[in-house]
Amino acid sequence: MSAELPHVVILGAGFGGLAAAKALKNAPVRVTVLDKRNHHLFQPLLYQVASAALASTDIAAATRVVLKRQKNTTVMMARAIAIDPTRKVITLEDGELTYDFLIVAAGMTNSYFGHDEWAEHAPGLKSLEEALDIRRRILLAYEAAERETDAEARKELLTFVVIGGGPTGVELAGALQEIAQRTMAKNFRNFDPTKARVILIEGGPRLLAAFPEDLSESALTQLKHLGVEARLNTRAKNIDARGVTLDGEHIAARTVLWGAGVAGVPVAKTMGVPTDRSGRIAVDETLVAKGLSSVYVIGDLAALEQDGVQLPGVAQNAIQGGRAAARNIVHSIRNEPLVAYRYKDLGSMATIGRSHAVAVVGKLKFKGVIAWFAWLFVHLMALVGHRNRLMVFLEWAFAYVSFNRSARIILERPVKSMETAPLSRVSLPKAALPSPATTDGAAPRAPEKPASAAASLA
Ligand SMILES: Cc1cc2nc3c(=O)[nH]c(=O)nc-3n(C[C@H](O)[C@H](O)[C@H](O)COP(=O)(O)OP(=O)(O)OC[C@H]3O[C@@H](n4cnc5c(N)ncnc54)[C@H](O)[C@@H]3O)c2cc1C
Fold first, then answer.
1. β partners of residue 75
2. How deeply is 381 buried, as exposed, middle or buried, from its count of CB atoms within 10 A (0-12, 13-18, 19+)?
3. Of 46, 286, 320, 325, which residue has the fewest beta carbons closer than 10 angstroms?
């Protein structure tokens, strides 16, 4: 490959970055795909890892393998710390990388609305590390409940609170309820798992605010039917090791999960260009960062309105944006005019639990079992990698007939912060404390980053 060719760096191997890289396969450029992780992650199924339905390896694919046949592309595992658009340099943790064109596809991270101290008590769901942390907290709460003799303490262990009524919160709440009602049934001798409480808290007047109102209503009804307590127009005032404080009420709960807010990754701030309130980078209609010429921003991190609304933080927007940015880079090299990006909405869906979901495709709306099967099919087909597709299909088929969740193993986890946060909260007697652990049905994993660190990763 000629070093003379323009160098395109793609920061982020998520949905947008991967789509952009693939679209540049035959372009006269050298491509470097840079990511702090070695894998592309299928975020829409993260909650299934968190709820022990799938193993982490089922929803991730090594980026190097995905792009191995793409000769003009180098995959580099490194964390970007800063971007200097004037010098066209990306500062890495341990070096520098220069570019002619840059596509920033680095996504979003969790936002705790100025309360970063809540992260320790209420992990978000953006990475595999967080999904495994959540899974571990859920399973350990049940284990601790089996040994707990104090009724109040056991109640606390069996109360699960999910903050945020968007798709992530709804999915998590539905899965937690299923775990209580189906998966854990008959597994314990000292308490009845079906008595576990799952509470979903949403600050706004309805769940799934991005969906049509009748589907939000339907999602609420379906969740209630499953047994989830959903509270609308309710905001968390504080979250600590003992639970959640709301306006005039404290919910004692040892497991609190966060699905309420997102913010642009920190590296976005280093570019010195305008961002919106959530830290997304403002781009023009060709996806070029405002005020710059060779830097494209795509996917969740791009602040762009179409028809008066911010484009949604969904996989399709990232994929379509990745392809559009790649196309414009080729136009640029050929000295042709750039083309405006137009997002095509292919529909949205959210699953609530077994046989429960909502979906909207154009003017068509679906709910219940039809929406659920549509959700299963779309997510299965969208997974990266034939192996993953097959494994997930088999896992789902098995789970459908058995009601079981196959990834329920709690493995040792040598991560320091894990020693204090969740285990101290379930207050197991010292002698009985399992070693710091992670839960995964897959093979033992290398040490992972602590959840609190993962939440603040750039
Ligand atoms: C739990 C969950 C459920 C979801 N469900 C759905 C769904 O059902 N349908 C749907 O359409 N969308 C869903 N989404 C949203 C969808 O996943 C995102 O819209 C999509 O991932 C955005 O793609 P992206 O390329 O912009 O960023 P991402 O896919 O987030 O990729 C960003 C990449 O950048 C890397 N990165 C970040 N910072 C750095 C750095 N400093 N240095 C190096 N690398 C860095 C990250 O490691 C990551 O690989 C869900 C999201 C979550 C979290």
1. 33
2. exposed
3. 286
Identify the pLDDT of residue 1: 63
Give domain limits for the chain: 7-36+78-111+262-333, 118-260+348-456
**What does the DSSP 8-state code read for residue 363?**
T
pLDDT at 241: 95
CB of 49 sitting under 6 A from ligand 1: no
Instruction: Give the Cα separation of 123 and 131 in Å (integer).
Output: 9
State whether the beta carbon of 35 lies less than 6 angstroms from ligand 1: yes
Q: Which fold has domain 7-36+78-111+262-333?
A: FAD/NAD(P)-binding domain (3.50.50)
Which amino acid is residue 239, in one-letter code?
I
Q: Looking at residue 2, what is its pLDDT?
A: 67
| Residues contacting 4, CB < 8 A, separation 6+ | none
Catalytic hit among 120, 148, 171, 395? 171
Does domain 118-260+348-456 fall under CATH 1.10.1270.20? My reply is: no
- Identity of the amino acid at 206: R
Extract the residue ranges of the chain whose pLDDT is less than 70. Answer: 1-3, 411-458
Q: How far is CA 5 from the centre of its chain?
A: 35
End-to-end CA distance of the chain: 31
Q: Under 8 Å CB-to-CB from 219, ≥6 apart: which residues?
A: 170, 207, 208, 211, 350, 352, 358
412 is known as an active-site residue = no
- Write down the pLDDT at residue 433: 36
Predicted local confidence at residue 425, as pLDDT: 42
**Ligand 1 centre from 411 Cα, in Å?**
26
Is 140 touching ligand 1 by the criterion CB < 6 Å?
A: no
